[in-house]
């Protein structure tokens, strides 16, 4: 098996090292793991592509490349320039922090997996939820490292085998904010929404008198509706959410169609 890995935390991120070990075990001794990741952190860029300017790419080691672009850029560079043939699977992550609930819409990690799916390749985004039980642990990625292989294999075992049925799908995985020994297993979960939580801005004035804005995230320990991703994670379970790059609200579409008739 040939596997491409990428992320949005950058080529030197510790989560990418965790993902490399997961991918190597999935690929097997006769497989290949290729890394094409952003040269610098690209958190929060979503599915952005560098459409208006070129990006520099550099080979750092055999099968290991850095690109001055987004995770989606990295997937495009890998598929259409770097790899000798298309990969069988794309893994994106392991992200530093969760990509559950509304975070999905901002996530570069998810954006990388989405681009692979749009290119017709099975893809999984993987993120490690942080919280009081693991955020300051010696290995905050322990849950992802211990459970990553079995989670990816479980998804591969259930993955649709035909392009029409499955290869525009991608999967969003979030490992819970707890030590690996406290993980309670896998749960299929819909994307949720954290009530009362949203991104905001915080103003600062520099010593030179110029005003700058920092983007601030909301409280990540707020649960979503029961059975949805962040609620599942806060119950020490791994959430697995199948997704498509299709934002259509089917119920609203049906209602609108009736109104237009």
UniProtKB/TrEMBL annotation:
It comes from the Bacteria. Keywords: Cytoplasm, Hydrolase, Metal-binding, Nucleotide-binding. GO terms for molecular function: 3'-nucleotidase activity; 5'-nucleotidase activity; exopolyphosphatase activity; metal ion binding; nucleotide binding. It is found in: Cytoplasm. It is an enzyme of class 3 (hydrolase). A divalent metal cation binds at residues 8-9, 43, 95. Residues 3-193 form the Survival protein SurE-like phosphatase/nucleotidase domain. Binds 1 divalent metal cation per subunit. InterPro entries: SurE, SurE-like_Pase/nucleotidase, SurE-like_sf. Its EC number is 3.1.3.5. It holds the Pfam family SurE. It catalyses: a ribonucleoside 5'-phosphate + H2O = a ribonucleoside + phosphate. The keyword Transmembrane does not apply. Its cofactor is a divalent metal cation. One of its GO terms (cellular component) is cytoplasm. Nucleotidase that shows phosphatase activity on nucleoside 5'-monophosphates. Belongs to the SurE nucleotidase family. NCBIfam families: PRK00346.1-4 (NF001490), PRK13931.1 (NF010541), surE (TIGR00087). This is 5'-nucleotidase SurE. It comes from Oceaniovalibus guishaninsula JLT2003. The gene is surE.
